[in-house]
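Standup notes, protein team

Yesterday: finished cleaning the Amycolatopsis vancoresmycina DSM 44592 set.
Today: Secreted protein structure.
Blockers: none.

Input for Secreted protein:
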Amino acid sequence: MRRKWIVFSIAVLSLFGLSAGPAAASGRDFAPPGCFGERYGILFGQGVSVSCFPGTGYGYRVLAHCTSGSAFWFVAGLPVPYGFGPAVAECSGDLLVPARLVAYQVDEI
């Protein structure tokens, strides 16, 4: 009986460890130097808005890493010249399976 309780407690602790892993891994909410990113919620999904100071190229765009259930995809925002509005990318899902923004990256163009 004692062995069953030990196995059960290890199983419960491992479930807590697996559920805490993705939350810790999704802590990549920082933009590169000179850029400021902000997450926001939309209907059945999430989005990100990034503004950058002038850099070496023409402009920048944001690339969102999205997930919904077991699906994983990328959403590329439109290119934005330096000095004009933020670059935006949104992860859109469905009613029963909303999309989630896992991480994002900023590409200079």
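Follow-up from PR in the comments: Residues 23 and 89 are 21 Å apart (CA to CA).
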